[in-house]
Amino acid sequence: QVQLVESGGGLVQAGGSLRLSCTASGRTFSSDAMGWFRQAPGEEREIVAIITWNGGITYYADSVKGRFTISRNNFRNTVSLQMNNLKPEDTAVYYCAGRARSGYVSIEYDYWGQGTQVTVSS
Fold first, then answer.
1. What is the pLDDT of residues 19-70, one digit of tens each?
2. Which residue of 16, 59, 88, 109 has the smallest Cβ count within 10 Å?
3. E strands of the chain, at which residues?
């Protein structure tokens, strides 16, 4: 069992930056794909960025390519999301999640954090 706790959300003006962090505890997550997802009010949860177990492959939603960067540190049990040039449409609750099964570009992840709010004002 892996427990995830996100931090780093907040209120920022358009064009600004935030860095989200996700810390894992429990069993090691070093063999799992990890991802960041988001859900805006009235919307479906969507993939933001995904990183494979060793960081060798990353995947980004088209809406965040070139602005967001996902990274992980398996020694420190952390996954991060650097978000630059934020836009009002990035406003959502952001969730960190892990997937122990094969495959990684999916919304079906196995364990989730509680989420952190990101609000971008225009």
1. 999 999 998 889 999 999 999 999 999 999 999 999 899 999 999 999 999 9
2. 88
3. 2-7, 10-13, 18-26, 33-39, 46-51, 58-60, 68-73, 78-83, 92-99, 111-112, 116-121
Given this model, what pLDDT does residue 114 score? 97
Q: In this structure, how many other beta carbons lie within 10 angstroms of the beta carbon of residue 63?
A: 13
The structure tokens 């980004």 sit at 60
Between CA 75 and CA 72 the distance in angstroms is: 9
What gap in Å lies between CA 7 and CA 20, rounded to an integer?
6
Q: What are residue 72's DSSP bridge partners? A: 79
